[in-house]
Amino acid sequence: MRIGIVCYPTFGGSGVLATELGKALADKGHQVHFITYQQPVRLNVFNANIFYHEVRVPTYPLFDFAPYEVALASTMVDVIMNHDLDLLHVHYAIPHASAAYMAKQIVKSKNGRNVPVITTLHGTDITLVGRDKTYEPVVTFSINESDAITAVSENLREETFKSFPITKEITVITNFVDVSRFNKKPFDAFKKVIAPDGEKILVHASNFRKIKRVDDVVEIFARVRKQMPAKLLMVGDGPERPVAEELARNLGVADDVRFVGKQEQMEEIMAVSDIFLLTSDYESFGLSALEAMAARVVVISTNAGGLPEINIQGKTGFMANVGDVEAMSDYAIELLKDEDRLKKMKEAAYAQACKFDIKNIVPQYEKLYSRFCRMEPCV
Predict the structure, then answer these.
(1) Does domain 2-176+358-370 have CATH number 3.30.9.10?
(2) What is the pTM of this model?
(3) 179-354: which CATH number, 3.30.1390.10, 3.40.50.300, 2.40.128.10, 3.40.50.2000?
(4) Which secondary structure element, helix H or strand E, spans residue 149, and what is its range?
(5) What is the mean pLDDT of the chain?
(6) Residue in 306, 341, 320, 356 with CA at minimum distance from that of residue 213
(7) Which are the contacts of 131, defined by CB distance < 8 A and separation ≥ 6?
(8) What is the chain's alpha carbon radius of gyration, rounded to the nearest angstrom?
């Protein structure tokens, strides 16, 4: 198949999933064309079946904000027609689904082809941004005009039907993880640099937006630190990072917290960690938590959104209500003091992650594609 994948190229979950999906499809012999404004961060390997098409947005004095959606649609048209794509798979509804609809209509007017569009919903495109009255009519229309719609969790599927008048079925194809990538032995030298005296290591990874509640992560760690030697790795960057850094200083734990910025080699960081903290107001699925579990890291999270679909209370980790810093701290302290239970839960977390291995999920997308693909090019 010749597949166009449209996504954000950043460290967010939608971009990561889209890129890993494209790489897996290319490994299976499909031709994959990424269409976005810069090379995706996870697109770090050479594969003869992978192509990258940059969306160039011209700037003119007339525009305060350059019309990215128009440039994106035009690039889609160019790639569809010059590379004879079988379908477009767009990740994150805004603005990709509406741009794909526009591109589809343009191609149809030029050569009569009806290029299928599959839209995958990832979370805040539905639960936060999409609900804004500024965007809702376009979001609803473009989702309904998609040939197929998928969501990364049952919770997100339910939220979509609750929030929008969607007239089509939404298929749940969950997020996935490449277990083979994250199933690594810890690099002892790296661990000693972070925890020279054998301290327990907690980790958080996100885009540091308000919805992630990174201040809660720091507060949890401060409570843990009062009970035992420990270190905290804060992976990622974003608008709430200064808030978290200042809180760490105010709570007296700054020396034990490392803000390491955006990192591509998450498997090395996860391999040396004991507990992954995810304190979000909402997670449609929790891809970062799944990656942690694949690395045998126990997850302590909120019970928001789709997290209960992957994190099993008392088995793979623990969950608490949003903002319940005390409960999450108690869970972490109790677990870190019980080495035998910690080991058992690490293995249970890994076993749960294996259910979401990339090898189990990618065939579900291939099956979906095959419903729409023209017979002759589907090789």
Answers:
(1) no
(2) 0.88
(3) 3.40.50.2000
(4) strand 148-151
(5) 92
(6) 320
(7) 163
(8) 21
